[in-house]
Amino acid sequence: MQGENCPEGGILMSKNIISKLAWIDARIELDILHPIFLKSVADEIPIREGSRVIDIGCGMGWACRHIARRYENAEVVGIDLSEDAILKARKLNSKYGFKNIFYAVASSESIPFPDNYFDYAMAFVSFSWWKNIDRSMSEIRRVLNHGGEFYLLDIYDGGLGGIFARVSNALLTSKEKIYSVDDYRKFMEKTFSEVWQKKVKPFRWGVLTVGKKVD
Q1: Most buried residue among 47, 156, 159, 181 by CB atoms closer than 10 A?
Q2: Domain range holding 107?
Q3: Over the Cα atoms of the chain, what is R_g?
C-alpha cells in the first residue's frame, strides 16, 4: 500500500488527517460554542436605546446582529480586517433587513470614527490576534465617550476555549495567543478604570473583562 511503503504517501495521509481534525475543532468552536457564549455575554451589556456600540473584530457580524435585533434604536458598528468577513456581514445585513448596523474594513489600531463617539465597545474572541495591544486599547478608549465601557471576551489559559486553541495551534501553522485571566486584567487596567472580570459559564470557556473610561 502506498501509505505504508511510500513516505510521501504517509505524509500526505497525515496532513489530510490533521486537516480534518483542525476542521472539526474549528466547527465545534465557531458553530457551537461561540454563539452560545457570545449571546450570554452580549445580553449582559447594559445597552440603552439610542446607544452607539462598536464591535472590534466583528467577523461576519453575529454579535452585531444580536444586539441590533434587541435594540432597534441603537447604532451598531462592526469593524474587521477581513474584507471577506465584512462582505459576508453586509450580505447578511441585507438578507435579514437590518437598518441599524454598519460595517467597515478597519483595524483595532486605527478606528475610523471621531473621539468620544461610542457608548460601548466590545471585542469578542478577537483580542488574541491583535498585534499591538497597547495601541489598540488606546484607540478604543479614544472613540469611547466619558463613562463608556469596553467589554472584552476571550479564551484564557486553563479554560475550555484555551484548550481548543491549543489543539488548533498544534494542528495548524497559525498560532493563536493564549493569555491568562490576570493578563487580561493587566491589559485592561493600563488604559481603563473600574475593571472587573467574570468567567463565562458553562464549561469555563472564556473570561469577560470590563473596563470604563472615567476621565
Answers
A1: 156
A2: 2-212
A3: 19
Number of domains in the chain: 1
Cα dihedral 125→126→127→131 (10° resolution): 160
The answer to whether 41 touches 200, Cβ cutoff 8 Å, is yes
Q: How far is CA 56 from its chain centroid?
A: 7
Sheet containing 206-212, strands listed edge to edge, beginning at the edge strand earlier in sequence: 101-105, 75-80, 52-56, 118-124, 144-155, 206-212, 193-200
Q: What are the grid coordinates assigned to 134, written together? A: 497597547
Contact of 74 with 50, CB cutoff 8 Å: yes
- The percentage of the chain sitting over the pLDDT mark of 90, rounded to a whole number, equals 49
Q: What would the pLDDT profile of 117-147 be if each residue is shown by its tens digit?
A: 999 999 988 898 899 999 999 999 999 999 9
Q: How far apart are CA 31 and CA 186, in angstroms?
A: 30
Q: List the CATH number of the domain containing 59.
A: 3.40.50.150
Q: How many CB atoms lie within 10 A of CB 196?
A: 11
